[in-house]
Amino acid sequence: MRQNIIAGNWKMNGNISETKSLLEELLAGKWDHQRCQAVVCPPYTALSTAGKLLHESHIALGAQDMSEHASGAYTGEISTDMLLTVGATYVILGHSERRQYHSETDKLVNTKAKVAFQAGLTPIICVGETLTQREAGQVHEVVEAQINGTLSEFSADLMMKSVIAYEPIWAIGTGKTATPDIAEDVHRFIRQKIAELDADAAETIPILYGGSVKPSNAAELLGQPDIDGALVGGASLKADDFLAIINAV
Ligand code: PGA
Question: Domain 5-246 adopts which CATH fold?
Answer without folding.
Answer: TIM Barrel (3.20.20)
